[in-house]
Design goal:
The strands form 2 sheets. Strands 1, 2, 3, 4, 5, 7 and 8 form a 7-stranded mixed β-sheet that branches. This protein has helices spanning 19-22, 32-72, 120-128, 155-168, 183-197, 215-225, 275-284, 294-305, 327-330, 341-353; strands spanning 109-114, 134-136, 139-149, 171-177, 203-208, 212-213, 232-237, 265-274, 335-336. It has 2 domains: 18-79; 109-353, Spore Coat Polysaccharide Biosynthesis Protein SpsA, Chain A (Alpha-Beta Complex), CATH 3.90.550. The protein is 36% helix and 14% strand. It has 366 residues and is of the alpha/beta class. The chain has 10 helices and 9 strands. It is elongated and about 100 Å long.
Length: 366
């Protein structure tokens, strides 16, 4: 046998190596049996880890599939849903109230404007234009802004709104989350306020902060209409179906609204109703299930009250879309949508500085 690497030139094993150990094959040194004993245990542990990993992945996929399925049947567990407060509890006090006396000089028209705290520029433009309190003929027209509270508490925003309220005295606010889905609560808040604090009014209008309102022409048409009870008008949507596209702004699930068609309703961009209708909506609303689309919800209330929607004029006066501005055109409309604050100032000042003679013979002139 040739000398081993562990043998020296004398043929003796190195110190510390027993002859019996030296004579074992290389694969069976003193440590090798222990390693062979650990091998199956290590393999078993690795196998358990793999099985646990596969099980975890399968479990996660199953949860994901369940979540998707629940979303399709409108039982989204993790989706944010704004909490609907006990709005119909009449003890739900207002946080902010306007300083107005409806008894001394009862308003002919109260305009309720839905807004959010960050829309100060729009509120400022409205206060300088159609929202400014004025006497038209002998009819008093006043405007107020409807606000909720922030999703996340913001002390600076709250302080700013309080200061604005103290300065202008035209803000109505209650404690509900100010989101688009709660626009129904905001509108009902305004109706509730009119019912309690300004029942001497003749008409109420609900509109939005991105609107142009020709209060002069609206007042003229209301006087000419000569209807002060059971009256509701605006841009009428006689046959609208619920939008089932989940990514659409006006989406309504079958759970929220199972019907195939909405009752007739007026576009939420601007509708007008007599004060007795405000009282009737106030009284019936606690028995009508909440629905997030405010104009449709009001339409549902009117259906229960058996109040028919009516046109204000033989020609279209309410426009839920943007209308290209011209002095003669805007003299003969009540509402126009998607108007920026700077545009509102331009349009209004142009109307005030114009004369009736400018539009004689114009196609829009009656």
């Amino acid at each position: 046998m040739p000398p081993s690497d562990n043998d020296d030139n004398t043929g003796r094993p190195p110190p510390g190596i027993d002859k019996r150990q030296r004579d074992l094959p290389p694969a069976t040194t003193a440590m090798r049996p222990a390693q062979l004993q650990e091998g199956p245990a290590m393999n078993k542990a690795r196998l358990n880890i793999r099985i646990t990993g596969i099980f975890t992945v399968v479990l996660l996929l199953a949860c994901l599939c369940l979540l998707i399925e629940l979303n399709f049947i409108d039982l989204c567990i993790f989706c944010y849903k704004s909490k609907i407060p006990s709005f119909y509890n009449r003890s739900n006090n207002f946080l902010l109230l306007p300083d107005v006396d409806c008894q001394a000089i009862p308003p002919f028209l109260v305009i309720l404007v839905t807004t959010e705290y960050w829309q100060l520029e729009a509120r400022t433009a409205i206060r300088q234009t159609w929202g400014k309190e004025r006497i038209i003929g002998d009819k008093r027209v006043v405007s107020f802004f409807l606000l909720g509270t922030q999703v996340k508490q913001d002390k600076n925003a709250e302080s700013s709104i309080i200061s604005e309220s103290l300065k202008y005295k035209d803000i109505i606010q209650r404690n509900f989350t100010d989101t688009y889905s709660n626009l129904t609560l905001k509108t009902l808040m305004g109706i509730d306020w009119v019912h309690h604090y300004c029942p001497q009014s003749t008409f109420v209008m609900k509109t939005d902060s991105d609107m142009f309102i020709n209060t002069f022409y609206l007042t003229e048409l209301l006087v000419r209409k000569n209807r002060t009870t059971n009256f509701f008008t605006g841009f009428i949507n006689p046959e609208h179906s619920p939008v089932r596209d989940r990514f659409n702004k006006w989406y309504a699930s079958e759970t929220e609204y199972p019907g195939e068609r909405y009752p007739p309703f007026c576009s939420g961009t601007g509708y007008v109703f007599s004060i007795d209708v405000a009282t009737q909506i106030h009284n019936i609303s606690p028995s009508i299930s909440f629905f997030k689309l405010e104009d449709v919800y009001i339409g549902i209330c009117l259906k229960f009250l058996q109040i028919q929607l009516e046109e204000l004029h033989t020609k279209q006066a309410f426009f839920p879309v943007k209308v290209k501005f011209s002095i003669c055109r805007f003299k003969k409309i009540v509402t126009c949508h998607y108007v920026q604050p700077y545009e509102l100032l331009i349009y209004w000042n142009a109307l005030l500085s114009s004369t009736d003679e400018e539009c004689l013979g114009d196609e829009y002139n009656e």
